[in-house]
Structure formats: structure tokens, C-alpha cells
Specification:
Layout (H helix, E strand, L loop, with lengths): L5 H22 L9 H10 L5 H4 L4 H11 L6 H20 L1 H4 L4 H10 L7 H20 L1
Helix pairs in contact: 1-2, 4-5, 7-8
Length: 143
């Protein structure tokens, strides 16, 4: 696990936000002005759950931020405190589990958690993934 200074993270976000905003706008067939910073932030934080390349993009702090900013009413205060610990345990498990290493999308990760019964070991992770997938699907169906 690599420790990164907050200033480094902010610099990466400043550099990638304009490009990501454009990619989101093109993908959603919107004008760049129509993509709010909040929408971009959701996409950036959702990418923290991405399992491809052996969970290279998986970021515990960003998953916690996603939970606190966009799903605060879906978790009790005690669960919010436990989320970070659960994610850190999952991160270790994901690097050791051949089943989890095979997942390449968030959907497949959700399916693998259910199939291996790890959704009961990591119920908070399972919940945030299901919330993200539900939001993505509801957004897609309303457009």
C-alpha cells in the first residue's frame, strides 16, 4: 500500500478533472458545460472501486469519501467508522484471492462477492457497490 500526500492527490485531480469531464461529457453525449463538478466527483470516486489490474485503482479513502458524500443516509454512524477497516481487510484479501483477482469490472466484483459469500464478510463494501451500481443504472435509464 502506497501512502500519498494530500497535495499529490489534489494535483492529480487538478490534472485529470478536465480530461475526465470531457470524457464524461462525450460519453453521455452532453455539452461540457452540462457536466457539474458533483457529477465528475461521483465518477472519480466510483473509480476507486475499480478492480481491474489487480485493484490498482482501489482507494480506501476515496470509497469512504464516496460513502460520506453521496450515500450518508445509507450507513449508520458506526458503519461509517467500520468501513475503512473493512476496506483495508478487503484490499489484503483481494491480493491473495484468485477469485477476486479475476474480476475486471465493478459488476463482476459484486457478483464474485456474492458467489464466494464474501459479501457477508464485507457487507459494507457490498452495500456501497450495490448503491453505486443502482445509481448508475437509474441514471442511465432516466437519460
Amino acid at each position: 500500500m502506497t501512502m500519498t500526500k494530500t497535495s499529490d492527490v489534489e494535483e492529480v485531480r487538478r490534472e485529470t478533472m478536465p480530461r475526465l469531464r470531457l470524457e464524461v461529457a462525450v460519453h453521455a453525449d452532453l455539452h461540457v458545460e452540462g457536466v457539474t463538478d458533483e457529477v465528475v466527483e461521483v465518477f472519480v470516486l466510483n473509480s476507486a472501486l475499480d478492480p481491474h489490474n489487480n485493484y490498482e485503482a482501489f482507494r480506501v479513502e476515496d470509497v469512504c469519501k464516496l460513502m460520506n458524500q453521496f450515500y450518508p443516509n445509507d450507513f449508520m454512524e458506526q458503519e461509517k467508522l467500520h468501513m475503512k477497516i473493512q476496506l483495508e481487510h478487503f484490499q489484503l484479501d483481494a491480493h491473495q484471492s484468485t477469485e477476486l483477482q479475476k474480476t475486471s469490472t465493478v459488476v463482476k466484483l459484486c457478483q464474485e462477492l456474492a458467489k464466494t459469500n464474501k459479501s457477508s464478510v464485507y457487507p459494507l463494501l457490498d452495500r456501497i457497490i450495490r448503491l453505486v451500481l443502482t445509481l448508475s443504472m437509474s441514471t442511465a435509464t432516466t437519460e
